[in-house]
Amino acid sequence: MEQTAIDHSDTDTRLAQRLHQLRMRRSWSLEELATKSGVSRATLSRIENNEVSPTASVLGKLCAAFELTMSRLLAYVESDLPALVQRNAQPVWIDPETGFRRRSISPPSPDFECELLQCELPAGAQIDYPLPPRQGLEHHLYLESGALELHVDGSSHRLAEGDCLRYRLHGASSFRVLHRHPARYFLVIR
């Protein structure tokens, strides 16, 4: 399943508009974006018309096509933030399909090269990203609790509580929770 029916929140509406703007700035048709992203033309149309909310997997594919990180894409639809980002101003996005929860603790900004995310992937969940949003994107993942298996560019890594994995994305990646408890982790992206 590539999308989920939604209630039309402000964030979803702004996301739909932003995705449409990104496509139009490149002068791509829906068909061209479908070819570049691997997301069906019908799904893209429904997303841009704010009829459905994209899942993390679909957003990953779109970000790869647009060569943007998911955080940068979501920052375009969220409010401008000052240097001090108080907890109530840290945007949270929840994948409607998997329940994956992403809090942007230190959102992307033109003034800083990295961003900090707090993530929670529910027990039994898996998210697959067929392409990186940008070649060589640097990640530092610290597993706060739970157990997580990552497949990054053909290599497998099993993380236990307290482990940190540093890697650069050049190909497909996959995140899978190994136990009956959610995996909670911090992710620095640069």
In words, what does this structure look like?
Helix content is 27%, strand content 33%. With 190 residues, the protein is an alpha+beta fold. The protein has 2 domains: 3-75, 434 Repressor (Amino-terminal Domain), CATH 1.10.260; 83-189, Sandwich (Jelly Rolls). Strands 3-4-5-12-7-10 form a 6-stranded antiparallel β-sheet, with no helix packed on it. A 4-stranded antiparallel β-sheet has the order 6-11-8-9. Strand 4 (101-106) and strand 5 (115-121) form a beta hairpin. Helix 1 packs across helix 5 (70-77). The longest helix is centred in the first third of the chain and has 16 residues, at 10-25. The two termini are 30 Å apart. Residues 1-8 have low confidence and may be disordered.
SSE order and pairing:
Layout lengths: L2 E3 L4 H16 L4 H8 L3 H8 L3 E3 L1 H11 L3 H8 L14 E3 L6 E6 L8 E7 L4 E4 L7 E9 L2 E5 L2 E5 L4 E6 L3 E5 L5 E7 L1
Helix pairs in contact: 1-5
